[in-house]
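Notes for week 9. Today we move from apo structures to complexes. The key idea is that a small molecule is not decoration. When we ask for a structure prediction with magnesium ion present, the ligand SMILES becomes part of the input, just like the chain. The input block below holds both the sequence and the ligand string. Read it once before you look at the output, and try to guess where the molecule might sit.
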Amino acid sequence: MTKIIDLSVKEKIYKSKKAQISILNNFRLEVAAGEKIAIVGESGAGKSSLLNIVGLLDRNYSGEYTLFGSPTNQLHTSQLAQWRNQRIGFVLQESALINSLTVEDNIKLPFLYASPDKKGVGEIEDFDTVVSAIEIRHILKKKPLECSGGEKARAVFARGIIM
Ligand SMILES: Nc1ncnc2c1ncn2[C@@H]1O[C@H](COP(=O)(O)OP(=O)(O)OP(=O)(O)O)[C@@H](O)[C@H]1O
Ligand SMILES: [Mg+2]
């Protein structure tokens, strides 16, 4: 199967004035296309730090990371931003929706930041597919504060996968 994530961290160091901590020592993660995984570990083990690395938010570590077949250490910051926009979906637990926007506009936010060459490509179809699959058509015109917890969670999820 095609490898989507191929990550090899030697070490991630957090430094402060007084102390330095080293996590993810000799850590490897391989994820194949279509594979679903859960990351489990005690508090402070490094799960969030790992997700920051996997999600291209943090490149300040020693190691190698190949994503979608491309070594990420060669990507420039603008390319990193483009990948985060178009190829990675984050679903956060809380306060991830913009309250002044409708659910529809929240879900469509990633389109707004897409590069010009990707703009408009299949947007309406993708939006429709996701809205039907997640069954949120009835809340599209609502603002997040008018939604239930589960409805908000589905809106966040829709936005996470829309690209
Ligand atoms: N910005 C930072 N500066 C210094 N140390 C940090 C920083 N962020 C995290 N750490 C430390 O790195 C270690 C890993 O933190 P991380 O947030 O990745 O853990 P986690 O597995 O997500 O924990 P939790 O289950 O509590 O969310 C912890 O010891 C934490 O104190
Ligand atoms: Mg965490």
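The mean pLDDT is 91.
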